[in-house]
Amino acid sequence: MTYKTTFFSVHPIDPFGSKVGGIETHVRQLLKYCPAGMRLILIGVDDSGKRKLGELIEVEMFGGRFLFMPIMHCHQGEVNAAAKSLFQSTTLRFFVNFIRYSSRIKALAKEMPSSFDIQRYEFAWLCRLYGFDYVLTTHGDANPDQPMDSLLSRYWFLHKFNEKHAVRSARHVYSVNQQQTDRIRRDYPEVATKTDFMTVSVDDQLFKPTVYPDLQGPLKIAFVGRLDTFKRPGMMFNVIAELAKRTDNQVEFHYVGAAKPQSFAEFAAIAPLTVCHGFKTSAKVAQLWQGWHMGIVTSVFEGMPVYVLEALCAGRPVCSVNLPQLSLVIDNNINGVLLEQNNDSAELVQQLAQQMLATWQRMRNGQIQPEQVNQKVAPYKASNQMRVLFDKHAQLQSRSAGLVAQS
Q1: What confidence tens digit (pLDDT) does each residue in 58-68 have?
Q2: Which PANTHER family does the record match to this protein (predicted)?
Q3: What is the topology classification, in CATH, of domain 219-378?
Q4: Rounded distance, CA 2 to CA 23, Å?
Q5: Any idea which architecture 5-201+381-405 has in CATH?
């Protein structure tokens, strides 16, 4: 194929690997939805330790074709765990290795008009250093006083410093929730006109509404993703335990992800009712949703959880503690419940369990239907949003082509 422009996606992900999360899902959708005529090069990592670093390989995956350049070997056990020290940070090591292979990356960028797509503030320094135009997608605010597994809790000042320079230098900024979008516009008025709200996208080619299985029970509740501290796994397990108490154990909890729920004390109470599926590809998760009934969210904060969008797109209602951005996709009368509060008190555990049972009853009565649940996420489907993002990059690449022509 003859390419006219190059799109660089820069993130420490192995397309063959098992790293999970909203950013990783976003990157995989970029790989899938990249338009014809635009060469996509993923600057990522190799989890296997076998691929030659700095070498391009052609990959057909996720329904698309792209080029992959690993610049760092990353042990599979590290990819889904948060670093405990700065020198264990995958982001820092990736940053250093990008510089190591910068001459190769610069040569590729000069072959044709190009632009870079980044998800981490730190990588903006690399784009500035080498003069690359970039679009930044930032995936949600956190509060340094809230529980976090990452190094952000100890290096918050560095995070804010990086944010300031990343948003100011970006050609365009997208934020995955409206609250953060408003906050960035308020904190940095000079970038307001180039900052837009755009959630992570749900792959509507994979996730489709299907008939609910066996509404006579048991109630099958699922959670997909990492069990970070800010997601309050303990509270989630307590809600499942409360549901089991109220239904005479007629409930199942399904966990998809590489984390170990057994490391949380609260999990012991629901271990006999739990199925741990391990890491699964998005295609497999889409199939699994056909056998489940409902999703649950107990997080302190989030961006726009891709897991929630996938559940809703699959026609499954979601019940959550209060996260303002979820009001965009959850309607208490149509596709789940969004509580008015967000804490991990015993009272809220009982309230969430009660609302989940009420939602379950409405599903059984036919008041909640898969197609109606699905329609609430129509604006956030990848088939719509990826086109917007790639169009923005096409504008930057056109600008790049004009500068080359003038020189």
Answers
A1: 999 877 889 99
A2: SULFOQUINOVOSYL TRANSFERASE SQD2
A3: Rossmann fold (3.40.50)
A4: 29
A5: 3-Layer(aba) Sandwich (3.40)
